[in-house]
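Work Package 3 (structural annotation) set out to generate three-dimensional models for the target panel prioritized at the project kickoff. During this period the team completed the workflow that converts sequence records into discrete structure tokens, so that structures can be stored uniformly alongside our sequence database. As a representative example, we reproduce one entry of 477 residues exactly as it appears in the project archive.
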Amino acid sequence: MTPTTPTTPTALRIDGFSLWLPARGTVLSSVFAEASGVTLLVCRSGSGASTLLRAAAGTLPAGARVAGTIEAGGRPLLGLTGDELTGVVDASHLGELPDDAAAEVLRAADPALLASLGLASAAGARAPERRAALRLVRALSGRDARLVLLDQPLFDLQPTHRAAACAAIRARAAAGATVLWAEHLLEDAVSAADHVLEIEGPARVASAPAATWRPRTLPAPPAMALSRALGLSPDEEPDGHAGLAPRTSAHRRPPGDRLVTAPPELTRLNRPIELRHGECLGIVSRDGDRAAETDVARRLVAVARGARTLSSPLHLPRAPQVGRLVAGWERRHDLAHGTVGSYVEPLARLTPERSVGQHSPGERAALAWGLALSRPGPRLLIEPTRGLDPAGRRQMARTLRDDDTTSMTCVVSSDVEMLSRACHRLLVVADGAVVADGAPLAVLGHLPRPPQLVRLGVRALRVADLAPGPARRETAR
């Protein structure tokens, strides 16, 4: 979709804004920026995007110190109460959806919007992807707010609904609001934005039109990386028609010997599944059923561990200090000091004295990753990239694909870009049957939503195959 300028643009102005938080220190310092239409806010995990949204929403934690101004439509926002912000800022997406609010959202929303996000029926109200869609609908259904704040709205959606979500966000801006949208799934979001604000450091926010923006602190989305590598102008960039899989392939570390064969009576699949040492195995439901994906993954990891009970996803407590949590984990699993940090540090920098809950979603994802990867034996990863920036996702995929040579890892993720980079095999399932089992490039036709280069079409794939060595290696990963 080609972005268009809103019919009645309402500007967001950030003038000399600085923010200090308890137990964290200076997050942003003397930031100047302007935004209108759909403005994408991007940065490394923990660099302040979510915090900036919460400053505009008036929901900073106690003890926060701010300076400078944030204005929407010429009206200062800092210091306003919740009632005073009503009609000026819609920050509903920053909060969770109460269990009793789903029915009200469904009654008040545009039926066409509900249908486009898979909400035409009331079934499955507690599914994560459904709740994510309801939160987005709630945020976009208002018509009075001058500023709409969105924090990572795409990740928990069904991947097949992300294009519709981007279209709905654009429609809200066309109706007259400024949408400030923090997002890490750049491969989906950039083409739907008018402008990009990239937080490059506490004292620097760079602004550029989305059509000309090039990331400075993050890896470029696949299509942008391909175009830059080949020196293509915007009108020469790959189009959006459906296409075949690229002939290129990444040089992945081969998995090791057979670990165990999981029998159908334990996996509830229609045939045995061979598991191998050092293998990263992704589980994908052809129908996008995350509950089915998670159930299969838990059963496979339980078999690999020789356990009689199903493996459970790792859940982080929010109250403990990070340093104490990590030290306790390393003692429990007889790990050398610093083992967890060796996995975490390439993804995000954590503060040991701060609690888990005081860190950003991306920082918490990095911590969960470090705990899971340092645990001896087969590992279970459920949505490990949730909240991580593109650089962190790239590092995670590289570690799973190339560096880990001993433990078997089973991954469930709606981040198909990460799965295609990280996994040695993808197991595609539907209704208890194995639909496809093979290398990512071999099973692309069975995925509910393929990686971006495949979606871009024949021309992109042909260009990828003709690219010089470095570009070819980049697009294949």
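Confidence is low (pLDDT under 50) at residues 4-9, 237-250, 458-477.
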